[in-house]
Specification:
Layout lengths: L12 H12 L4 E8 L5 E8 L5 E7 L2 E8 L2 E5 L2 H7 L7 H7 L3 E4 L4 H7 L4 H10 L3 E10 L2 E9 L10 E5 L6 E5 L6 E5 L15 E3 H5 L2
Length: about 220
């Protein structure tokens, strides 16, 4: 990522947000760190995104891991029986369904809002790119060197009827204006972005390890 000065540090904060959103749109990236829902629930992410339709990663909640895979726009989740039960999701909320899903990749259908809250973590880079591209106002912070990369900090404000800051975004001031780190508001988590443009290989789960959500709820 190190390269010549890219000039963003001389721009207004809103323009920095726009440049960063354009730079990270639909390109491979590795994202890892923690996020919080504002309560005691802390989620740890380790996601490799190959773009809009391909990604793989691990999501850890309550000390237990969920494997998430997206291939060609189709999502799959793998977790243990105990984790499915602890999540309390209506789609896999009973012992019989959770046991059948144990160690299998559950194919997620679009209408499943329950499981969508888990696969959304595969979209973290796209979501941030969209938020930055749509930024209406932003404030400029200081500079910092993060993981060896010089950056400038901005706090974008989301558009809409109830605009809110999305946290502090550290944008590289050398090379491409990539996002290097995203600190959530109120110290509720921090995500590190690295390995931009590095190819990400995502393999579809073996057919004998895949089970449809509909087969769990309607055996």
């Amino acid at each position: 990522m190190i390269g010549p000065d890219n000039g963003v540090s001389a721009l207004p904060a809103k323009q920095i947000a726009t440049r960063a959103g354009q730079a990270i749109h639909n390109i491979p990236v590795h994202v890892h760190g923690t996020v919080s829902d504002g309560s005691r629930q802390v989620t740890t992410l380790d996601v490799f995104s190959g773009g809009l339709d391909d990604a793989r990663g691990t999501v850890v909640e309550a000390g237990q891991a969920i494997d998430a895979v997206r291939v060609g726009g189709k999502d799959y989740l793998r977790a243990s029986t105990s984790l499915w039960m602890s999540l309390g999701l209506p789609a896999i909320g009973n012992a019989a369904a959770a046991t059948r899903a144990d160690g299998k990749y559950v194919r997620v259908v679009m209408r499943s809002l329950d499981l969508g809250r888990l696969t959304k973590f595969l979209d973290v880079s796209r979501v941030l790119a969209d938020e930055l591209a749509a930024t209406e106002t932003a404030t400029l912070g200081g500079t910092a060197v993060i993981n060896g990369v010089p950056t400038v900090a901005i706090t974008p404000i989301t558009p809409g009827l109830s605009p809110l800051p999305i946290g502090t975004i550290y944008v590289a001031t050398v090379g491409e204006p990539y996002v290097v780190r995203w600190d959530s508001p109120g110290d509720s988590g921090s995500l590190v972005f690295s390995d931009y443009t590095k190819p990400v290989v995502v393999d579809a789960p073996p057919a004998d390890q895949v089970i449809d959500l509909g087969h769990l709820t309607h055996p």
